[in-house]
Specification:
about 325 residues, globular, two-stranded antiparallel sheet, alpha/beta
Length: about 325
């Protein structure tokens, strides 16, 4: 099994990365350092996670100590929704680079297809609590993303939470300079995304799965929500391989050639989540896991459901 997915740019993206959403600032520097010691080389970040400064400190310490070189690492970040206006994109990217203490990103994604009103608030809301949209166009934002590649600030660009119709619009854009190299979407056995993954891979666009463990620490979890890590059928498959449920959930993506970014700040789990290259799920087990799909989303961004670019109104 390859430990990389090759992007159409020929860059090799490690198939397993460390997610940093919900990693508290006080803990994330140590998590990054631990992950580098364990062997992680891919780090998934975003402006909206508000911890890029600490992520950067962890990376910087390991580079200074001579443990890794910058070119050994694959660092991803994302353009937040309040920066979709063309003239704001470069500044947003530079802010992220400054926080991460890097001079380029390996991959920079448009975090969501929905644009929000520009300003200091990450989630500008009206009196009803609904997010205030910006009157921006995905295609204009994409042109600004392309300029980042030409400026040498990023090696590749992509999207996140885009449906196939939105990707299709970019691919069909007159004068397109660089197609998306990646689409990062929520994916796990309760949201298997078969159609979207097949579509992206058929277009030479790699896919990254976020919340692969079902994001048990999401702030809005309800007691009655399904729990992947406690799913008896997943635990049964794990026991058969002498592995944990988390390891099975991570391996599931690797075998679909889907990049996967489990988040942890716990040293033992950071290590456990990386031990997924020494076993293989059978074809039957893969089919069983795929059959768990129930189109259940952790991240539905429902405050934006009326936005013109809300991505989850179509099937995929």
């Amino acid at each position: 099994m390859a430990k990389y997915v090759e992007l159409y740019t020929k860059a090799k993206m490690p198939i397993l990365g460390l997610g940093t959403w919900k990693s508290p600032p006080g803990k994330v520097t140590d998590a990054i350092k631990k992950a580098i010691d364990v062997g992680y080389r891919h780090f998934d970040c975003a402006y909206v996670y508000q911890n890029e400064d600490e992520v950067g400190s962890g990376i910087q310490e390991k580079i200074k100590a001579g443990i890794v070189k910058r070119e050994d690492l694959f660092v991803v970040s994302k353009l937040w929704c309040t920066f979709h206006e063309k003239h704001l994109v470069k500044g947003a990217c530079k802010k992220t680079l400054t926080s991460l203490k890097l001079d380029y990103l390996d991959l920079y994604l448009i975090h969501w297809p929905v644009g929000f009103k520009a300003g200091d608030e990450l989630f500008p809301a009206d009196e009803k609590g609904l997010t205030i949209p910006s009157n921006t166009n995905i295609l204009d934002t994409w042109e600004a993303m392309e300029e980042l590649v030409d400026a040498g600030l990023v090696k590749a660009i992509g999207v996140s939470n885009f449906n196939h119709e939105q990707i299709e619009r970019i691919l069909n854009k007159p004068g397109l300079k660089y197609k998306p190299a990646n689409n990062q979407v929520e994916c796990h056995p309760y949201l298997t995304q078969e159609k979207l993954i097949n579509y992206c891979q058929s277009k030479g666009i790699s896919v990254t799965a976020y919340s692969p463990l079902g994001s048990p620490d999401r702030p809005w979890a309800k007691p009655e929500d399904p729990s992947l890590l406690d799913d008896p059928k997943i635990k049964e498959i794990a026991a058969k391989h002498n592995k944990t449920a988390a390891q099975v959930l991570i391996r599931f993506h690797i075998q679909r050639n889907v990049i996967v970014i489990p988040k942890s700040i716990t040293p033992a789990r950071i290590e456990e989540n990386f031990k997924v290259f020494d076993f293989e799920l059978s074809k039957q087990e893969m089919e069983t896991i795929l059959s768990f799909n129930r189109n259940w989303r952790v991240c539905a961004l429902s405050t934006c459901a009326s936005h013109k670019e809300y991505p989850f109104k179509v099937e995929y």
